[in-house]
Amino acid sequence: MGTLRFALGESTKNISIQVVNDVYMEGGSEVFSIALSNAVGAELGSPNTATITINDADNGTESNPIESDAFFIRQLYIDFLGREPEPGAVNNWLAILNHCSTPTDCDRNAVAMGFVRSAEFRDRGYFVYRFFSASLGRITTYGEFIPDMAKVSGFLSDSDLEVNKEAYTGEFMNRQEFKSLYDSTLNNPTAFLDKLLATAGLANHPRRAEWIAGLTNNTLTRNQVLRQFVESAEVMTKYYDEAFIVMNYFGFLRRNPDAAYLTWIEIFNRTKDDKVIINGFLGSAEYRFRFGR
């Protein structure tokens, strides 16, 4: 679900769980539980668990809810930003869909692209994505990405987002996969940078000498260097096309890419047309079947 941070004296926090009302008949109520765990610097009080029940009110005759523009827009918020829309946001997007003179500039593809290309998604979803590709040398999985994105998503102030990004960087570096790759370089700044840059295929990164000097002089930490590297223009450019395709799988289909991923990469490399890709996913039967027939 994510991480809750309690300030001194705080005893309660709110969390948001998005429930998508599809029209499939589940044959009764669905029940799941959530729990607080892995407390750091504190002890868990009671209660620390909750049970959520989703009542199935469908009769099997309803139309697919994705046909509703309001439903579609809310779903984009959930799928790409990991949160509910802010007040008035759905109506603002509906106004774009319903009042335009050039349909291709304000159809569903254009609205969806507004989310995929948004600064919020770039600064959060794409931020998380690059840690895997740039430092581990592999594409993240859907199962890894969703809980990781939750750590930097939601209604956050700039300062809260910064705190969460710093915490995420440190947590990522403490994972066993990262430690297995880089712990042998703990006392060797040059080896650390060269291993990191080689993993990303950016051995000639223009800031290599700067980062080595910072680590050697103790003016930079490994956490700071990793984050600066992941947020550098060179890394952002290198992985952008790859991430764009993968994010379409994660967002619209809610799963890992399949063999067709390479075909989508080829199409995107050839056309550089975002709408062609987004239309392919939005128009797919698999996307529609998430919500109904």
General description of the model:
The protein has a two-stranded antiparallel sheet with strand order 1-2. It folds into four domains: 1-63, no CATH class; 68-116, no CATH class; 119-238, no CATH class; 240-289, no CATH class. The mean pLDDT is 91. The radius of gyration is 21 Å and the shape is globular. The chain starts with 29 loop residues before the first strand and ends with a helix. With 293 residues, the chain is mostly helical. Helix content is 54%, strand content 4%. The longest helix is centred in the middle third of the chain and has 18 residues, at 119-136.
Protein topology:
Blueprint: E1 30-35, E2 49-54, H1 69-81, H2 89-98, H3 108-116, H4 119-136, H5 142-150, H6 158-173, H7 176-182, H8 189-200, H9 208-216, H10 222-230, H11 233-238, H12 240-253, H13 261-271, H14 274-282, H15 285-289
Antiparallel strand pairs: 1-2
Helix pairs in contact: 1-2, 1-3, 3-14, 4-8, 4-10, 6-10, 8-9, 12-13, 12-14
Summarize the model shown:
The protein contains 15 helices and 2 strands.
Which features would summarize this protein structure in a list?
about 290 residues; mainly alpha; 4 domains; two-stranded antiparallel sheet
